[in-house]
Amino acid sequence: MKKGLMAAIIGVSIIACPIMYALVGPALSHHQIEILKVLIAVTACSALYCFVAGELATNNSQMDKLWSLLPIAYVWIVAGMGGMDLRLVVMAVLTTLWGARLTFNFGRKGAYSIRFWSGEEDYRWVKLRQRKEFQPRWKWMIFDLLFISIYQNVLVLIITFPALLAVDSARPFGLIDGVAAVLMLVCIVYETIADEQQWKFQSRKHAMLKEGKKLEELPLPYRLGFNTTGLWGVSRHPNYLAEQSTWVALYLFTIGAGLSVFNWSMIGALLLIVLFIGSTAVSEEMSAGKYADYRNYIKNVNKYWPGKRYESQQ
Prior knowledge:
This protein is mostly helical. It has helices at residues 5-23, 30-57, 62-67, 70-81, 86-107, 123-129, 137-159, 161-165, 175-210, 238-256, 266-290, 294-300.
């Protein structure tokens, strides 16, 4: 991650959340506050686990494993304590579909193990941990505590706040809710397709490499090293586009619940977008250093939105 980005993200979060709550509203009801207390307790336990397990196991993908599971738990807690209102149940079901897809995709990469704290660690944490700015070890521990364990856990909680604000709504499930549900489902399907295309490409590439072939000896598009097929040929990060849009769609349910178009629960989706901007920068920096044609890919293909299809110079 670029120097100072973590501090900037956390700083914006600390400042933006209370300002949005105070200026935009609405204020939480007593019932919503009681639900929030339960959610915060779960978040605190998760953050503590991620830090302790991550440091002891030297595997900082603890939050990665929980990223797809916690939102499901949060939204179902809200739905259950909110009286299983139709809008809340639809939000919970869609969040479950989102989480099931992500859990499956992450799991088939070897991320989960019977010993939950072990398993395959995200390569980005490995690379970041080796950087000189995180030496000596205590510097990485601070990063792990503040960003990986605390900030990401809080962010996952915040992105589910639209469900909390939809509690006790006097407005029945309507057209806006239907649009939000369809949009969220489309995003889930889009991301599923992107994941499948990436999985098939990488699986085939690594299978050929295991046969003893060198990367430059592989046929196109595999010898590029990175995927340019399907959605990945018209967008460098189609999965990231769908992921961010999913939580924007969840936010739309608050409008269906009768809240203002601008309410403070939008901060979750906005902060997630900021996080993905940083994550994208890290991923592309690593890919550009690893694959010769990747900078050309960056120049000619849109980052998120589909556009012109990529044509390799190799």
